[in-house]
Design a protein that fits this description.
The protein is an alpha+beta fold. The chain folds into two domains: about 400 residues, Creatine Kinase, Chain A, domain 2 (2-Layer Sandwich); about 70 residues, no CATH class. The strands form six sheets. The protein has a six-stranded antiparallel β-sheet with strand order 4-5-6-1-8-13. α3 crosses α6, α4 runs parallel beside α7 and α6 crosses α9. It is globular and about 70 Å long. The two termini are about 35 Å apart.
């Protein structure tokens, strides 16, 4: 039986310095995050002891990459909302806390944008006159380098990984029609001039169907087997395929539809379905390069199908699944009915005319802006002014962001986003992590997703494991946290 789809998003942000284009991105990212941390709280470091990025879901294990030791020396902290904020290679990264639903995961992803905005503002105090750190929520520097927006979903460990690969790949190849962030041109060598506009920022950078890598030879299905939970019960599906979205509708549909499909996989709904695509990597790029949504891909049973047709197939199965099961793993009946209705409405409008969704989907909003400017000024697709518009879409500064000027509709209340900057979700273990950091931060030596390490002033340090993402919630621990006057009292209460 399918389990709750606890989920979240890790976003690596693009970064630059106005007035100093050759600035070291690692140093600049460190300044940015240090500036934020210095304003809101003391820093609690990250505990790397239980990290295992070399474990492969196919049963292999590799040594950790050589840069893992370097990462321990970069800025790395945990926030009171349960999120992680750190320097990942040459980028600032915000990893949202564990969330109980797609709507909540959207909320904490938008809270991450607000954290980075506040960090930019705080960093001005540390920058030389005439220089300013600017952050972009995008996936490519247009120089052949890509940085990720990774989703994470909790799954039942008992589901064979080969089954996940088979039944999920066609969905991943085609979901970009509603969750792509849009991209001018291409970064595949030899293809310049042949591609005017793409649905996805990331499609250019994928080379394998299945694999462990996240920065080279990127796979459509990532095999990293690092559950950050009880490995006998849970799997964390680490999804590296998606774009970083500014549209709340695109982000929500990305999370919600994927969570529904994963629940169907767990419950065996797709076991007898044949939608496998021939050459998925080539199909991924082919779909991305077709804003008209007319291109077809070949399936292994001899059919030719559009991305829309494949998405309609998944949706129709999801609707029947909902009628039978209710899909409580993704939300209440009312919430799931809304998300299925939004998925259906989106596919219907894409089928009629994608431009109907220019205020809902990122790639459509961006294409609308670029086409309008191109036509008004009689420009070619390779004009650098259009490339500037592409980048400016992702600028998260309110006064500069073209995404904000595009009139994108929203799903969230801004007051809720502001609250989520500091307050953790109540329904997952992120609540325990965040509230302990808020109240007992001086007594926490380090933290990670599945444990907190306390230093009560008495040897030894005390590690509190959090191996179930659905334990440590408001209902479980808030009374104890509120009644404890010290970390030692809290630990004694947990022991009791």
């Amino acid at each position: 039986m399918a389990i709750a789809k606890v989920c979240g998003i890790e976003t690596e942000y693009g970064i630059s310095v106005l007035g100093s284009p050759d600035a070291n991105p690692i140093s600049v990212s460190s300044v940015l995050i240090n500036a934020y941390v210095s304003e809101v709280a003391g820093r609690v470091g990250w505990d790397f002891e239980t990290e295992s990025p070399g474990n492969d879901a196919r049963g292999f294990s590799f040594e950790a990459p050589g840069n893992a030791e370097m990462e321990t020396h970069l800025v790395n902290t945990v926030l009171t909302n349960g999120a992680r904020l750190y320097v990942d290679h040459a980028h600032p990264e915000y990893s949202s806390p564990e969330c109980i639903s797609p709507k909540q995961a959207l909320l904490y992803d938008k809270a991450g944008e607000e954290v980075l905005r506040r960090a930019m503002k705080a960093s001005k105090r540390f920058m030389p006159p005439g220089q300013e750190i600017v952050v972009y929520k995008n996936n490519s520097d247009r120089k052949g380098n890509s940085y990720g927006c990774h989703e994470n979903y909790m799954m039942d460990r008992a589901v064979p990984f080969a089954k996940i690969v088979k039944q999920l790949t066609p969905f991943f190849v085609t979901r970009q029609i509603f969750c792509g962030a849009g991209k001018l041109g291409t970064e595949i060598l030899g293809s310049q001039g042949e591609v005017s506009f793409q649905l996805s920022q990331r499609a250019d950078f994928f080379e394998e169907e299945v694999g462990l890598e996240t920065t080279l030879k990127r796979p459509i299905i990532n095999t990293r087997d690092e559950p950050h939970a009880d490995a006998t019960r849970f799997r964390r599906l680490h999804v590296i395929l998606g774009d970083a979205n500014l549209s709340e509708f695109s982000t929500f549909l990305k999370l919600a539809s994927t969570a529904v499909v994963l629940s169907m996989i767990e419950d065996g709904v797709l076991d007898d379905v044949e939608l496998q695509i021939c050459s998925p990597v080539q199909a991924l790029r082919k779909v991305s390069c077709d804003p008209g949504l007319k291109v077809t891909v070949d399936t292994t049973d001899g059919r030719s199908m559009t991305a829309l047709e494949i998405q309609w197939s998944y949706l129709e199965m999801a609707k029947k699944y909902f009628e039978r099961e209710g899909i409580p793993t993704v939300g209440t009946s009312e919430e799931v009915a809304v998300l299925l209705g939004l998925w259906e409405n989106t596919l219907s409008q894409l089928e009629e005319d994608p431009m109907l969704l220019r205020q809902r989907l990122d790639w459509v909003a961006k294409l609308n802006l670029i086409q309008g400017y191109k036509e008004r000024h009689s420009l070619g697709w390779n004009d650098p002014k259009l490339a500037a518009i592409d980048l400016q879409y992702h600028d998260i500064r309110p006064e500069k962001s073209l995404a904000l000027r595009a009139g994108l509709e929203t799903l969230l209340d801004s007051k809720d986003v502001d609250m989520a900057v500091f307050e953790p979700p109540k329904e997952t273990r992120a609540y325990f992590r965040g509230k302990c950091l808020e109240k007992f931060g001086e007594s926490i030596a380090a933290a990670n997703w599945d444990s907190l390490i306390f230093d009560t002033g008495k040897d030894p340090l005390r590690r509190v494991p959090m191996m179930d993402p659905l334990k440590g919630t408001f209902d479980h621990v808030d009374g104890l946290i509120q009644s404890s006057n010290s970390a030692l009292e809290l630990l004694e209460g947990l022991g009791a």
